[in-house]
Amino acid sequence: MLDTAPAVRKAPGRRTSGRARPRRRPRFGPYLLIAPTVAVIAVLMFWPMIQIGIMSFQKVGNRQLRGEPAESVGTENFEKIFNDPFFWQTLRHTVLFAVVAVSLTLVVGTLVGLLLNKLGKRMSSFVAGGVMVAWATPPVTAAIIFSWLFGTTGGLVNWCLDLLPDFLVGGGWNDYNWFATPLSTYTVLTVCVVWQACPFVAVSVLAGLKSVPGELYEAARVDGSGPWRTFWSLTYPMLKPIFLVLVVMSIIWDFKVFTQLFIMAGMANRDAFNLSLYGYSEAFGSLNPKLGMGSAIALVLTLILLVVTALYVRVMVRQGETR
Amino acid sequence: MRRLPRKLLLNGTGLLVFVIAVFPVFWMASTAFKPNTEIFSTTPKPLPSHPTLEHFDLVLNGGIAEVSFWEYFRNSAILALVTVLVSGLLSLMAAVAVARFRFRFRTTFLIMLLVVQMVPCEALVIPLFLDLKQLDLLNSLAGLVIVYIGFAVPFAIWMLRGFVAAVPRELEEAAAIDGAGPVRTFFRVMLPLVAPGLVATSIFSFITAWNEFIFAFTFLDDQTKYTLPIMLQFFFGRSGNAWGPIMAASTLLTIPVIAFFLIVQRRMVSGLTAGAVKG
């Protein structure tokens, strides 16, 4: 929920021209105002990021936790992970999941946003209220609820699938264990994550749609443009800036999804690991913590996300959000 | 004649979306009130036919963990409130700076805020664990709340600065002409006008801290320090099939947040979308 920022886009009534107001240029004022924030961010984010970089070239285990100095191991941690097929498997899981979850989130979220825009005022806020419920649900709870829905004993999904005719879905669903294979685990994870992420996309799209002048749609209708065509040649270009931001943010969220997978797969089910769970389990998963290895994996993840973040920052700067 | 079926179709789809969105939460709450025989019944029913409070009783009056539910509740509430207060103060200060003053490094500061919002906390948990250990703040709510503040502030500033910028400068100038000093102007003019923005931002910070899992899970060792999500996960991991109490505990954790969220929903959406995407 922290990362919902970009929906807050332009400030209402923000001044367009920066008329010079010399009186409003005190020397230290603004610096004093941002100083605490800068300090907090430096200590809690920048310094730890540097530490990850340092530790990924070190061996940090139980002895170092007791206070002994860390020994440098050069690029050993990276050689280990890059030569390990398991690392590539977790990377594959991470990327595939992100591709599927991001696409589904955006398509479904956009459709819901379009629907909200079409509905009458009262119906629209009723449905929006319902959609918000999914958004506000804590990730831990969401993961537990979906584990229960897809559970083996008393699980609703298996019960429903079993009711369907066998030629449609096959038989024997009643004791099907969704958490036995990575593919089925990720299926449940995708449903859970998409369910929670759609509302944000829907609300952002709705906000964007509200700002598109109605006359344009009127004109499109008069020209005989169907809904499909209207979307691609009118709505999409108008909302392109929002879509860009939503895509980038969804990629970032889904790349690092942790809590839900942790609850569903747990640390024992290594087959289903993604990058962030793999890094975490190396660092904290056993009695023999390998914080150096964990840092190396975390560094890989961070670097991937930094590339995506760079794209995001570029979009925001282009849109004048940092002016 | 053609309008009616179209309208019906739209509203029908709307209802369907509503049901899908709400269903998992409804199913959780409904399960929490079902006796065990109904929970594991071979034909699940949407509503409990013999509603019971036994699972809630078990969760609230001990029996599921060594520590009482209310202690976890208190820990979660303290963390969330302190996060809201401190991050609210820091972000209001910074939001005023970026919305009202032009200064060197202003753009750098804004870009920094964007970047740190994207930093994966899943990666930072390793160094932060070591840092807190060194400071002897591991396994304490104080250590945890510092981290929460750090992660709440960048977003809060980003959200608040729009609200600050929306306050007409003319009002402040008028107050200044009337002889009010900067402090008085701030409390009399600025604060009341950005209050809705502060509320919206606070809700976000509150929910973030309330829902947070990975830091609490990693940093807290001592059961008496656990937060609600950790208690829930712990309980879930230990007793795989006690779905009744698990759902009761989930309901107790979730319903307050959802209620809170829905009460301020309109304000929040307007905050989120305030002037969004104009051109």
Number of strands of chain B: 0
Instruction: List how many beta strands of chain A DSSP finds.
Output: 2
Mean pLDDT of chain B: 84
The level-1 CATH class of chain A: Mainly Alpha
Structural class of chain B: mainly alpha
Protein name (chain A): N,N'-diacetylchitobiose transport system permease protein
Subcellular location (chain A): Cell membrane
InterPro entries (chain A): MetI-like, MetI-like_sf, UgpAE/MalFG_permease
Region (Disordered) (chain A): 1-23
Short characterization:
The complex is a heterodimer of chains A (323) and B (279). By secondary structure, chain A is mostly helical.
Plain-language structure description:
Chain A: This is N,N'-diacetylchitobiose transport system permease protein. The complex is a heterodimer of chains A (323) and B (279). Chain A has a single domain (45-321), classed as MetI-like (MetI-like fold), CATH 1.10.3720.10. Chain A is built from 14 helices and 2 strands, in the order H-E-H-E-H-H-H-H-H-H-H-H-H-H-H-H. Chain A has helices at residues 29-55, 62-65, 76-82, 85-118, 121-136, 139-149, 156-163, 166-169, 182-210, 214-222, 227-255, 259-265, 275-284, 291-318, and strands at residues 58-59, 71-72. The radius of gyration of chain A is 24 Å and the shape is globular. Mean pLDDT of chain A is 84; it is low at 1-22. Chain B is mostly helical and 279 residues long. Chain B has one domain (69-235, 242-270): MetI-like fold. Chain B is built from 13 helices and no strands. In chain B, helix 4 crosses helix 9 and helix 8 packs antiparallel against helix 9. The longest helix of chain B has 32 residues, at 69-100. Chain B is globular. The chains are: A mainly alpha (323), B mainly alpha (279). At the A-B interface, helix 1, helix 4, helix 5, helix 6 and helix 9 of A face helix 1, helix 4, helix 5, helix 6 and helix 7 of B.
